[in-house]
Amino acid sequence: MISAVFINSLKADSVYAPAVTVTGGAEEADSLSGSGVFIGSDTIRSNNYDNIDQVLKTIPGVYSREENGFGIFPNISLRGVDPGRSQKLTIMEDGVLSQPAPYTDFSAYFNPTTGNKDGIEVLMGSSQVLYGPRTTGGVLNYLTTPIPTKRRAHLKTTYGNYLGVITQGARSTENLQYGDVRSHAYYGDTLNTNIGDFGFLFELYGRGDGGFRNFKHIKRGQSGFHKYEPMVKLSYKPNTSLDQSLEIKAQHIRMIGDVGYAGVSKNDIRNKDPWKAPGYTQMDRIWTERSGGHLKYSVDLPQYFDTKITTTAYASRFHRDWAKAAEYSTTLNDTDGGTKFHTADTDEELKLIDTGGVSGITVENKHNNRYYRVRGIELRANTSFNSDIGGKSLDHTLTYGTRWHYDSYYDFSFYDYYNLQNGIMYHTSSTLKEAASSKEYKTWGRSLYIQDSIQFNNLTVTPGFRYEKVDAKRARSGTSGLLTADVEGYSGGVGFNYVANNNLSIFGSVHQGSSFPKGSDIWTAASGSRENMDPETSFAKEIGLRYKNRDKGINTKIAIFHTDFEDLIVSSNTGAGTAVTQNAGEVESYGLELSATYDVGFNRGWSFNNPWTLTYTNSHAEFLNDAKKSDGDTIYGNAKKGNDLPFISDHQVTIGTDVIKGPYSLGVLGNWKSSQWSSGENISVKANDTRIGKIPARWVWDVKGNIKITNTVNYNFGVHNVFNNKYITTYLPLGPRPGAPLHAYFGITVDY
Length: 752
Fold this sequence. Notes:
By secondary structure, the chain is mainly β. The protein is built from five helices and 38 strands. A hairpin with a 4-residue loop joins strand 22 and strand 23.
């Protein structure tokens, strides 16, 4: 599935202008002074990936916890940091911060789409200087389709469905589809004129999926979603003595999903019926809409020590309204509150899950209705020069810059009430009972950074330093005054890469990272008082080697890492409760990462290529102290010294192979994860809390094939989870959640 770098090349297509990357692309990733991985469009599109979890399982050192089987709400961790809602990562698109509010509420439910991307980049080591604001968890960068340098058109359409699932269609015509349908199209060109080069790209991506979780007694749809995403890029490169360029990107993303917080009951897991949707979630739905873009200007100034300056201005708006079952009451028309859903597998709640014949119940749906705003500007410069120390010539590439950033979010929650009669929910009333406590948070962030890449013969050393300053404000209805706070963070360190010979290089790094609490979590929710919370800091070390032998079709990398976290920041409000973020204490994470590809067919001169790939992660992340607080709402609250960090497997393995002959290819890929805990307590059962348990080890296998009919037409087909394995992915937000069942698909791609 992941071919050797010599066969499934990850290099930029010469048809396209160079993309802005954090790793430098496939070739440059192999010379970083730390671990970094670049995955190109060939891998994403040939495997029909639209789930970031499927992409990341091929990268050692990455842990990804699914919530719904689609990858739209991933929980990603690099090297043992807290994976909750990917909040420790710096997530970017085309090198620009992409989260709805990267400073104020960086754990919001949004992630860039995967299926339309030209590449995915992951930085695990050496990311602490150039990329922030959080520098303890690494970088995930999505690359959109670049503007082609000559005319290019692309159309790909795929259709798929799940084993044993007959999609009923969703609750309204705006989300009516059958199975899983995806379409990706773009058209672009660069026009050469007397006054310069004008480039453009128009792209549209859409997906409709009926879902795989069924309501047993209700013919009212599935648990799927639909999304559409248009994007426009324009560029201009004038004919001037200076090498300069201008790029404009505008993007809109709209998604509606029939998903909620509730998983299934442990009784369903025991009865091997994990894909049942609880009946009381039949009105659960999330609406999200994001509009944004950037304006990027670059200019080369060779007269000033060969300097290139890039200025990027960016802005976005994001709105989400997530209506989901929150409480129930055995009294009809009860709007005064009741029992929280899915706190235990009681007989009463088990009946509500099926809802067949159930009547006389009031269901409260809470709308988490939030508005986000982002704007900022970043100036980054690269300067190349030489120096002489003791008669030794050193080549320097200095990268330095600053960023001014502002983001905010406004929280205005409200409620809908439904009477449950004979298994069907009927709307009765709505209320704005939290209008008096609506909240608005604003955060200003300022960053300064500098890094020098110093090369002497075969050795490159990269020292660097980063500074973050955060100012936060909060206004809350029903309270007087405006609350303010400020936080500072420092990051820095040094890395190296030594090229021993044409095939072998050695790399390593030592860095300190820093992460601050969300602007919305600096104060306690109820009183508005300042939380006594410290910034999270990390001290990360790694050393490894890379071996690449093009003549034999071999490409390997092995790395050992060790990270100490102090004042680990964790979220108390993970699916339940009202507590805020808190410091959990000290955590130690260490392990080994291995990735290897070997093309047997290429090396032995066969008539076909037969690349094999293996990635393996052995890691251990544990608490070095008892939890500082024993908040009952948090999955970390009762952690003891020596306990494992939740959702971090000790072992992960991905193994696969392809057979490629002329226009035909067939591949298989398997992924195994060892068991993992869902809480810091490391216990299998806890009364009145279905979020607590142990996730069993599991294998998931995929197969795929491609047939290239002509130079412009390609057929692809495949099966995800080919053995239809029933497995648990998580116990969060509320109860066990299943992975996706067998999903078969076929599609056609036309390139011109």
